[in-house]
Structure formats: C-alpha cells, structure tokens
# Entry
Amino acid sequence: MSRSVLVTGGNRGIGLAIARAFADAGDAVSVTHRSGPPEGDLFAVRCDVTDTASVEEAFTAVEARQGPVEVLVANAGITRDGLSLTLSDDDFLAVLETNLAGAFRVARRAALGMLGQRRGTMVFISSAVGMTGAPGQANYTASKSGLIGLARSLARELGPRGITANVVAPGVIETDMAAAITEARRAELLASTPLGRPGTAAEVAEAVRFLADERARYITGAVLPVSGGLGMGH
# Structure
C-alpha cells in the first residue's frame, strides 16, 4: 500500500536518496527544503525546522496533498564546525536548534496524525560521530547524539499507540556535506572504518526503508549504523 512519507531536508544528499527510494517503492513522498526544491517530480515544501509556525505550514500542505504523515524521516541538518574553545554560542546553538530541536518539532507534529491512526514510523538520521565524538564538531556531535535520546524517549511514549521511533547513524557517505571535510580528516575516518570505503546515500536509504517496512514493526528505540563499522560497539 502507498503510504504518506515526509523527509525533512530531502532536497539533496542523503535526504533526497531516501525520498526517491520511498517514491520508487510506490509511496506518496514529500520533502522539505530551505535552499530550493530538488529536481524531479517530488512534492517539495519550504520549511524552516527552527520555526514551529513554518513546520505547521509544511505539514498542513503535505496533509492536504497526501493525507496524514505515516512515515517521518527527520533528516534536516547543518554543520558549523570549529574547535570548542573558539566556537561561538551562536554557532553551537544554531546546530542544536536545527539538528535536534528541529527534529523534535517535526516529530511532535507528525505524532498528532500518527496517534489518530494508532500507527506510524519515525526515523531520525544521526551520525556515527554522534557516538564517537569528533574534533571540531562539538555542536554537531552533541546534536546527533541527542537524537538517540530523543528517539528512545519517543519510542517509550508512543510505542503503546503502535508508533515506532528509530535511528540510522551513517558514517562517511559520499555527499556534498562529506566533500566539505578535509582530505586529512577523511583519511582518518576511513582508516577507522573496517570496510575501508565510504558508503553511498542509496545504502543509507535502504536502511531507512527497512526500518519503515512492515517487517520491522517490532523494532523501536534502535540505532542502526550504516557506517562500514565506524564507531561500532557504542
């Protein structure tokens, strides 16, 4: 059956790959964006996840087109890297406001429709470095680690209503965001990756689709690494 799927930050990179994977499987898919819609026929709505009113407007538009959201993928995120001793309050808080508080806002709004249906799926896109830490990314790693606590709290709160909440934690993935890291840092991360190669956005998308599949209905509060072994055991 076709489901109503919403992917935040779905206009590029991992988010776009996830959205297209669901669309290719026959689901009705919408994506949010801030910088511009993706190419193709995906339904796109402008949304600033740091603004509750903007989130409400986006959900209203999505619901009018394809009904209440049944699968939410909270993917929207930013980076503002810098060593902790020189990292400004604004740069620290901006990343948490988008990556963590933004995920909370969209999850809270999605839950309203899911509660009425007594079923639904939430998948939060974290990161392997959220479990290992990373120099120069105290804000980013804190936000991505926080998603695990958020998902597990939602899993306990919403599980009795048939709603699951899980986390996918990618490692080094070939995206524009990953291309921004230095060659030295990339080499360091790959040296810590047992499979010895970067992953693809399509591989992350398949993990997300698995967690949203009917066969995964008994999985909630889980963290699924898609990282080639980077950060295993956390």
About this structure: Strands lie at 4-7, 28-33, 43-46, 71-74, 120-125, 163-170, 223-226. Helices lie at 13-24, 52-66, 89-117, 129-132, 138-158, 176-179, 183-191, 201-211.
